[in-house]
Design brief:
The structure holds 2 protein chains of 2 kinds. Chain A is built from 3 helices and no strands. By secondary structure, chain A is mostly helical. Chain B is an alpha/beta fold. The chains are: A mainly alpha, B alpha/beta. Chains A and B meet through α1 and α2 of A and α3 and α12 of B.
Chain lengths: 78, 550
Amino acid sequence: MHEILAKLKDGIQEIMPGAGRQIVLETTIADIPTWDSLHSVTLQMFLEETFKTSIPLDLVQGDSTIGDIIHYLRGSGS
Amino acid sequence: MIQPGAFLDPLGILPSLLKVHKAWLKEPEKLLELVMDMNSDLTSFDKDGSLTFSADQSYPHWKAGLLNMTRACSKLGSEFQAAYGRWSKEYIRRIEGIEGRERQILSFLANQITHAISPSNYFWTNPVAVEKFLDSNGMSLLTGIGNLLEDLARGDHLIQITDPEALEVGRDLANTPGFVVFRNDLMELIQYSPTTKEVHSVPIVFVQAWINKYYIVDLTAENSMIRYLVGAGFTVFMISWKNPGPDMRNVGFDDYMFRGALAGIEAARDICGVQQVHAVGYCVGGAVLAALMAWLNFGYKGVDSIPIKHWTLLATVVDFSEPGEIGVYLTENSIAFLEELMKKDGYLHPAYLANAVRLLRPEILVWRYFAHNYLQGEKPPKSEFLFWHNDHTRIPASACSFLLNQLYLQNNLVQKDKIILANKPLDLRRIRQPLYAVGAEQDHLSPWKGTFKICSLVNAPIRYTLVREGHVTGFVNPPSPRNRKKFISGDAGGKDLDQWVFSQEEKQGSWWPEWVEWLSGGCGPVVPAPEGHPKYPPLGKAPGRYVMES
């Protein structure tokens, strides 16, 4: 789980440079400063590339938490 | 009047820059304060010691050292970039005596610089690029150079943001079954095949934007708005615009209204044997539809005299007084510059619009792919959204000029009788047909407050829905157990925006079911699904020919 979180943090930092490092499981995507829906599309592609699994766009929408994403990725065997 | 030197600086960046510098020189104390803030930002770098990284044991000592140095440089660069971003924002925000337009253009410029100096855009400060280079013995960078040369050879000055081979229109996208039932030199009309035995008697006709391809509402089977409507028992027609060439230089906004939208609506009425249809307009297709509604309502002779019973506008601005982020590009000079360019080809080259949109989000639509494709040597990823975004279309010179001058620059669509087309003056206040309008809170191309302004113009019942998402994700919004998108929706005719927002209750999920409920109430009783019409034989399978034109 820590490895997934670390990769996710790196990706979020790369896509949304204003994100800072204070990302925890309860953080929602919309909590990240500068987030907009185009970032969600980019995050979806980042996750698909990094974890080699199909990511529904609904998973990375504003109200999803980092915990939701990790839960999904773990469920998909990543 | 065009200013001298306009074509060298069509956006007027230089005069704005000079003005803000001059304004600062009159405020030396404030400037000193700003510089001190910047210094304090710079001296706080690495206070937490986060520039130290533990060595990766899987690499030889020299490689691990090199990677650590790269990571440290990247971290330091990121801190500098963030400090520069904050400082430049304050430089523009704190100064007094400059206009909103100047502030907007300078913020745009500062944003470009802030994202261009990101360490991830430079090989030695991009740890992922360096690691891939080491792991592949340099092949990643070689592949990246190949990617760069491929992009340059294409000649459109655009970085590839999605894998063009990964998806195919007609197979993976725009694959809702149907037939082209009508074609002229401007558009094809697609009639989707019913999936229910009975359908509502009033068909739905989509008037899509003519500055990109129609299939944003018919991406994949899972998120297609068209498929959803067909499944809910509606007969759906789609206008798919021809990708114009030089021969279409004189095709105007009125052609899109009459030979496009109205011709499609007439054909749909014939095929379904009905007096009226429901029309849906998306983005600038919505502007065409709104203008057509005003035109049809001139000299109103009763409910049945109008071929549109009620209508929907998706992400459509009709009042361009606050055009949002796209406004940064819109000046008399920049429009004259584009018109000069279009004289030669007869159309606006798609790269101009694509670059303009990409530079509004340079970090994710330009620089991310610069690093990914060139420095890391990766193939651009697969994405249906970006595939559509990348599937450009040209815009005829005449229609483009009308859109930029009459709508964006002069805002004439909301002026009473200011625009006269086919001998009728247009006034949106004459429109009497019920409207369902949808805006998206984060839409930077059709700002939702601009889309809401239709509510105080049209003289009919209006339901407005505000979705939390953006220009695309707000509308590609299928119901699903995971969909937690939020929206508000309610009657909005003649209402003040703030008052309306305050009085709505937030809902969660897709707004599509509520729209379908609204449509079902007005689209008549269910009747057997229409069969073919001898006057409109199938001319080919959906998605047709025009959408394939590049």
